[in-house]
Amino acid sequence: MKSEIKIGKNAFLKKPDKTEGGFIQIGDDLYYAIRNYDNMQPFFLSIVSNSDHWMYLSSNGSLTAGRANPEQAIFPYYTDDKIHDYKDITGSKTIILTTVSEETFLWEPFSVCSPKNDTKEDR
């Protein structure tokens, strides 16, 4: 007998949905949306500057940045794998309290600790 583990109404362990990308239109603007982005492995971005500033950013939100060289880092200068691992130590944190159909949910996008809701309209 296989039982599903849940936190509230959300499945805690389940087979990941397929990651898909495509254009969507909101009003007059065209955007590229990645559905189920949270199934992707983190990837690394290098932010370009026209001065001596540098920034490396993980897709999961953690980062390092500085001026001129690693010795002048604003955040600790680490390798990309460590920056991915430090997602809860450096960088931004998003926590949203949202109400859907008179139910209030705490949602923490980009966090592996926050399970997705099983309904398609919430994704």
Please tell me about this protein's structure.
A hairpin with a 4-residue loop joins β6 (53-58) and β7. The chain has one helix spanning 80-85, and strands at residues 6-7, 10-11, 20-26, 29-35, 44-47, 53-58, 63-67, 96-100, 103-107. Residues 117-123 have low confidence and may be disordered. It has a 3-stranded antiparallel sheet with strand order 5-6-7. A two-stranded antiparallel sheet has the order 1-2. The protein has a two-stranded antiparallel sheet with strand order 3-4. It has a domain at 41-91. With 123 residues, the protein is mainly beta. Helix content is 5%, strand content 35%. The protein has 1 helix and 9 strands, in the order βββββββαββ.
What structural keywords apply?
single chain; 3-stranded antiparallel β-sheet; 1 helix; 123 residues; mainly beta; 9 strands
The main pleated sheet reads as: 3 strands, antiparallel
Order of helices and strands: EEEEEEEHEE
Query: Which percent range fits the helix content?
Result: under 10%
Low-pLDDT stretches are 117-123
Count every helix, treating DSSP H or I runs of 4 or more residues as helices: 1
Strand content: 25-35%
The total of beta strands comes to: 9
Order of neighbouring strands in the sheet with most strands = 5-6-7
What does the average pLDDT come to? 80
Distance between the termini: 29 Å
What is the molecular shape?
Answer: globular
Rounded radius of gyration (Å): 18 Å
Structural class: mainly beta
Give me the secondary-structure topology:
Blueprint: E1 6-7, E2 10-11, E3 20-26, E4 29-35, E5 44-47, E6 53-58, E7 63-67, H1 80-85, E8 96-100, E9 103-107
Antiparallel strand pairs: 1-2, 3-4, 5-6, 6-7, 8-9
